[in-house]
Structure formats: C-alpha cells, structure tokens
C-alpha cells in the first residue's frame, strides 16, 4: 500500500503555509492504514483495516528507507480481526487497539467473524487478549497519564442510517492493575454532532475528540469545555509539542495554537 503525499494546509493565526508530507511506499501486508502512533522501539506503530482476504494487522514501520515492516499481529489465535481502527501504547508498554466492522461496512473486508472488541497485545511475548467488549463500533482509544483510566469511543451511530439511538459516545473504564482488563464502564460524554472518532488527552486530563463539527473538549467529569469549530467532520488530531494541536480534516491539516499540553506518547 502507498500512503500518497498530499499538499497539507496548516492554518495558524489565520495564515496558511504549505508544508511537505513524506510519502511512504509500504509493502503489500500493510493494507489501509488507520490508527497510528510512535515512536515505538524506533519505529512507527500502525494498525490496518486489511483488504479482501489480506488480514488487518498491527505493524511496525521503519520511518527511514527502505521503510521495512514488521508484522506484530495479524490474527486472534488464527481468526482474522474485522478491521482494526485505532491504537495506543499504555504506560506499561503494552499495545491496545480497537477492532470495528467498518471494513465490512465499506465492502473492503468480509463479514465480521468476531464481535467488535478492544484488545491488548504484549509486544514482547506477542500474546493477545480481549480487555473490553459489548460495543457496536469501538473506535478511538486513549489513556490517562498514569494509565489507570482508559477511554473508548463507540461510534455505532456512523453506520446506523435508520436508527438515531446508536451510540456516539465516549466511555471511561478503570484499567485493572494486574490483568489490564477494562472495568467499571461509565459514560464520559455523548456528542452533539456526528461521532467522536480519534481521541486524545492533555496533561490536565481533558479529553479531546474529533467530531462532526470540529474538535470537542471535555473535562474528566464529562463537562463540555468548548469546541474547535470547523462546521465539518474531522477524523483525528494529535498534539505536536506544547500548545500545538494538529487537526486532521478530510483533505487538510490544521494547526491550532492552544493553552494546553498533550500527553507525550509512551517511548518503550
């Protein structure tokens, strides 16, 4: 798969500049990259939707030429995942990811063979286990700085063309200290526009989600603090240093300068 280079427009203080985006020509096992983070052991960590019979996977990609790929996981004890959506590294160094059915909905994957669930992968032993279930579409994932609370967005509303009651909801969980299974599920927030896609946390514990009208921000009690309003669907965002939030729209990148700091990614 090739991640095509595009012209990225960064909006900062109402001024636009053009910046280059590096194109990575990735080998065939990497099909439809979706979530990503890094650096992880000196590489980029991606999860993929898969395509046709080629399975969804968790992969490490060398950011330097020749961009070689290491597949960490591409099945659950021999059963293919549905279409892996997002990934985060826990402070313990373990990898957590969400598995949706959007590949099947988009007709690029076969019908689901397992429930939409959240998984933990130990990158050292390659062991994998389910840590949370009972979702329609578990999508975005994030952890607090100490790793004791996990946030998962359920975006079942996205594929519910005739049912307005499906979730567009961010759930909070306690992360078990021993097993890292997610416990004590509760609602953090229900979005008022679109779905909460990618989610991230700042150093004060506030939760950011890419929604149908922009980036919405809640505190850790679920109170809506405000919005970066775009009036259109967004997919994700990422903190890029202190006071900088890069926001991903459908075909543009925006840079917002804010009085907040994002959590640094885990560097195993």
TrEMBL record:
<feature type="domain" description="SMP-30/Gluconolactonase/LRE-like region">
    <location>
        <begin position="60"/>
        <end position="243"/>
    </location>
</feature>
<dbReference type="InterPro" id="IPR011042">
    <property type="entry name" value="6-blade_b-propeller_TolB-like"/>
</dbReference>
<protein>
    <recommendedName>
        <fullName>SMP-30/Gluconolactonase/LRE-like region domain-containing protein</fullName>
    </recommendedName>
</protein>
<dbReference type="Pfam" id="PF08450">
    <property type="entry name" value="SGL"/>
</dbReference>
<dbReference type="InterPro" id="IPR013658">
    <property type="entry name" value="SGL"/>
</dbReference>
<dbReference type="InterPro" id="IPR052988">
    <property type="entry name" value="Oryzine_lactonohydrolase"/>
</dbReference>
